[in-house]
């Protein structure tokens, strides 16, 4: 149930983010939700930033207070903007992208969150539940000089009013009587709403009745005194229950200008005596706050950026940078900079230990008066124009956690004194930076686990090769990389083939694919891990250079088919770091997963590790899809060889239609079968049978029966002899033999327009004959089935089909069609056939099939064959 509401709209300008943070902080503190204010402000800041900065639209912020907590929604006016899915929760976007970080924070901090779309807006919402906290939680404020203390009356009066569950006053103390001039008898038993002057703030729907139902509430309103004037008060409400479980609300009220008596203080740690003394003198005692400023940024990137900016200002430098150590402390990774091309250097890595081309000043403070005299001493500053630099380590409990540097364009700007000042600041912030880094890393790891679980589910859900390739690319872009290309290797002697390309900007896909087709594919090396591949960026830079020279008239080559804008855009999109991860399955390289960044960007090590985990899962899924495709192709080829060749022979003067359905996914042939073939001039053989069971085992007996029938019939054997020899062949199969019901017949078209049939029905459902008058009757008698007894005595029966007659032959998949305890049966089939008078053979077969399909909602579980033969009527003269 919604108990409070507040809404505001912020224009698409940078200052709106700070205004939105203040709006949410003030709203939640006014609702008494101080426990979740910090998390709410962090999430709102990220989501509003995405809206007003990245999406470039106004942001609508809606705060809703409910029984369990607070739900905040941020809507922008750009509904087409791509949002990664996480569901239930979620493709995870790493926190170092300019967009999408708010979603990662939502997944880490919020109780619940989601994304909703309308025709004009995209809403990102999150829910923060209020923690269960016992009454009696205390906080303390610092000692203050007397002049700084809040002003109150000589005699402080705190009105205590108790409201029962019906909203009526049940207790009224003496201070309440003095403040509002009502005796207890005048107010007890009356609703509080009779005396309260509740403000109606635009955008806030909480009334006094709703406020009295909240567990805690603080705020201002008025109480009408006995003289009719409204006394402004500041109130603190607490919802309680007595020993009998009866709920009531205790209200403490003071005059509004004395609100400091009741107002909850901000949550800050209790200061020690030194802090109190420092604050009494009007100065800050926390070196971290002195350096960073207050309030400190909530997120790691904000903290690092604030650090480099303050370090640059403190030493009056032209640039500053901060590097964080990797987990093994062997490399440093650029995480923040100012005055340098940060986008170009972000996440670039340099080794820690001293040596040629290495970052030798990481573990100790160092001052370089002139970098031109020691080229390569600080690789990060190469080509930036910086000449003097001071660097200091960030250490926590003796471990190297990072490095902070300040640089200037002039030589000799820094001495050991500046190094000591910078080291002092670094020591103050090292612990805070390490805590923020570990928090970010934990969130990233949790997000990585969710990402891998979702990726595994998606990859396991398909055995289609093309779909697997598409999933691989779509899971990496834009979550792990800006663009992705998948190469496949058919066998050890084949060259890698470019199979799929994806870029986060769809307009760049064609140009990227064209560029990669011109570049030799990466070598399929089985060594695990990501390796750098420079060929795409080199080719992109060369293409961009040639295009620029042509546009200036400096080149003699022909102009490219695409414009210079497209070429330069492709170069920019591919010009960053590119890595290749092998796709290894069953000890064989089956492909490569290539990930790329735009111009001069680098991959984080955590992202590369996640990509490596994904590549292992993707490789197995891709190989499974390949094996499944190969086996399916083999199975379908073998199954098709068991079916009669198409088309079926044309029989003069007889219409023939066959419908065949094999049960089981991927099966083209099952235990039911049919055949129609010429025996000799003017004579045709037909058969329809059912092998016990379904699937490949039954299909094997199907093939034996069909080929044996053709061979024996063409050798001149009659119907009984054909089936007796087939029975012997089935029994010779031993344990692989199956029972077989079979209807076999021979057909001779006659000159008078009729057709003569000789049929043998060995355990099979009897064929039905439909006459022109609509009557239906069996056209044969039942005889023993095949594959059971050695000695069979079978006989054939003659049937004459007159013009207009139909002979319908089916397998038991038709007659035994079930829904619950109901079965179509022979009678049901007869009823369907009686409605087919005058229809062609094709129409008869189609009507029987529709009747079978409509008889039950569930798909058929048995093979099904329908053979309809009709002698057409003679045309009227």
TrEMBL record:
InterPro entries: Bact_Sigma-Reg (IPR052016), GAF (IPR003018), GAF-like_dom_sf (IPR029016), HATPase_C_sf (IPR036890), HATPase_dom (IPR003594), PAS (IPR000014), PAS-like_dom_sf (IPR035965), PAS_fold (IPR013767). It comes from Streptomyces angustmyceticus. PANTHER family: STAGE II SPORULATION PROTEIN E, STAGE II SPORULATION PROTEIN E-RELATED. Residues 262-286 are annotated as: Disordered. One of its GO terms (biological process) is regulation of DNA-templated transcription. SMART domains: GAF (SM00065), PAS (SM00091), PP2C_SIG (SM00331). This is PAS domain-containing protein. SUPFAM superfamilies: GAF domain-like (SSF55781), PP2C-like (SSF81606), PYP-like sensor domain (PAS domain) (SSF55785). Pfam families: GAF, GAF_3, HATPase_c_2, PAS, SpoIIE. Keywords: Hydrolase. Residues 160-190 form the PAS domain.
């Amino acid at each position: 149930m919604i108990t409070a509401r507040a809404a505001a709209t912020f224009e698409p300008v940078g200052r709106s983010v700070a205004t939105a943070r203040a709006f949410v902080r003030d709203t939640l503190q006014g609702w008494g939700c101080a426990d979740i204010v910090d998390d709410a402000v962090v999430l709102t800041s990220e989501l509003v930033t995405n809206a007003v900065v990245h999406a470039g639209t106004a942001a609508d912020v809606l705060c809703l207070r409910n029984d369990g907590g607070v739900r905040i929604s941020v809507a922008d006016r750009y509904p087409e903007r791509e949002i990664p899915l996480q569901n239930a929760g979620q493709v995870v976007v790493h926190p170092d992208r300019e967009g999408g970080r708010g979603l990662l924070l939502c997944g880490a901090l919020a109780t619940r969150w989601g994304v909703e779309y309308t025709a004009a807006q995209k809403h990102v919402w999150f829910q923060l539940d209020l923690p269960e906290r016992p009454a009696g939680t205390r906080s303390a404020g610092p000692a203050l000089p007397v002049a700084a203390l809040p002003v109150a009356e000589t005699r402080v009066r705190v009105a205590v009013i108790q409201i029962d569950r019906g909203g009526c006053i049940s207790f009224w103390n003496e201070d309440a009587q003095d403040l509002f001039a009502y005796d207890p008898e005048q107010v007890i038993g009356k609703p509080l709403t009779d005396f309260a002057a509740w403000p109606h703030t635009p955008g806030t729907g909480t009334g006094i009745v709703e406020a009295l139902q909240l567990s805690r509430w603080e705020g201002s309103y008025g109480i009408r005194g006995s003289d009719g004037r409204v006394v402004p008060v500041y109130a603190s409400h607490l919802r309680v229950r007595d020993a009998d479980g009866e709920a009531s609300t205790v209200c403490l009220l003071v005059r509004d200008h004395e609100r400091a008596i009741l107002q909850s203080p901000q949550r800050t740690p209790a200061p020690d005596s030194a802090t109190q003394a420092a604050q009494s003198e009007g100065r800050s005692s926390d070196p971290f706050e002195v350096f960073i400023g207050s309030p400190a940024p909530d997120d790691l990137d904000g903290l690092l950026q604030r650090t480099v900016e303050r370090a640059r200002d403190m030493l009056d430098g032209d640039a500053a940078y901060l590097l964080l150590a990797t987990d093994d402390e062997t490399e440093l990774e650029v995480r923040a900079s100012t005055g340098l091309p940060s986008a170009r250097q972000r996440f670039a890595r340099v080794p820690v230990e001293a040596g040629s081309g290495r970052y030798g000043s990481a573990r100790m403070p160092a001052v370089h008066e002139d970098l031109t005299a020691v080229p390569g001493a600080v690789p990060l500053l190469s080509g930036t124009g910086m000449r003097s630099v001071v660097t200091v380590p960030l250490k926590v409990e003796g471990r190297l956690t990072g490095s902070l540097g300040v640089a200037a364009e002039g030589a000799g700007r820094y001495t050991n004194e500046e190094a000591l000042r910078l080291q002092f600041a670094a020591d103050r912030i090292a612990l805070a930076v390490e805590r923020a880094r570990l928090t970010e890393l934990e969130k990233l790891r949790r997000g990585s686990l969710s990402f891998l679980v979702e990726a595994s589910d998606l990859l396991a859900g398909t055995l289609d090769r093309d779909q697997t390739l598409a999933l691989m690319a779509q899971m990496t872009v834009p979550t792990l990389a800006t663009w992705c290309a998948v190469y496949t290797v058919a066998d050890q002697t084949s060259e890698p083939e470019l199979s799929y390309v994806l870029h986060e900007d769809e307009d760049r896909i064609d140009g990227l694919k064209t560029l990669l087709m011109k570049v030799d594919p990466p070598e399929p090396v089985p060594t695990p891990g990501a390796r750098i591949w420079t060929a795409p960026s080199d080719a992109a830079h060369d293409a961009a250079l040639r295009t620029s020279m042509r546009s200036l008239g400096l080149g003699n080559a022909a102009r490219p088919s695409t414009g210079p804008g497209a070429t330069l855009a492709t170069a920019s999109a591919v010009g960053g770091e590119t890595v290749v991860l092998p796709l290894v399955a069953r000890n064989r390289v089956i492909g490569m997963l290539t990930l790329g960044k735009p111009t001069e960007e680098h991959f984080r090590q955590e992202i590369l590790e996640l990509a490596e985990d994904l590549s292992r899962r993707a490789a197995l899924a891709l190989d499974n899809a390949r094996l499944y495709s190969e086996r399916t192709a083999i199975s379908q080829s073998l199954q098709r060889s068991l079916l009669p060749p198409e088309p079926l022979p044309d029989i003069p003067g007889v219409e023939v239609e066959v419908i065949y359905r094999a049960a089981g996914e991927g099966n083209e042939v099952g235990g039911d079968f049919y055949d129609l073939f010429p025996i000799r001039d003017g004579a045709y053989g037909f058969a329809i049978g059912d092998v016990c069971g379904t699937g490949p085992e039954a299909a094997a007996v199907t093939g034996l029966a069909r080929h044996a029938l053709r061979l024996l019939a063409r050798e001149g054997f009659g119907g009984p002899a054909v089936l007796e020899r087939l029975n012997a062949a089935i029994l010779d199969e031993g344990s692989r033999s199956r029972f077989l019901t079979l209807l076999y017949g021979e057909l001779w078209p006659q000159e008078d327009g009729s057709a003569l049939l000789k049929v043998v029905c060995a355990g099979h459902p009897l064929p039905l004959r439909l006459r022109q008058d609509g009557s239906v009757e069996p056209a044969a008698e039942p005889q023993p089935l095949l594959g059971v007894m050695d000695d069979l005595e079978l006989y054939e029966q003659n049937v004459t089909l007159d013009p207009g007659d139909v002979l319908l032959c089916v397998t038991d998949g038709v007659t035994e069609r079930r829904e619950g305890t109901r079965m179509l049966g022979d009678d049901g089939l007869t009823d369907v056939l009686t409605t087919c008078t005058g229809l062609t053979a094709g129409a008869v077969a189609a009507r029987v099939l529709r009747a079978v399909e409509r008889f039950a909602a569930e798909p058929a579980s048995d093979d099904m064959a329908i053979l309809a033969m009709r002698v057409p009527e003679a045309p009227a003269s």
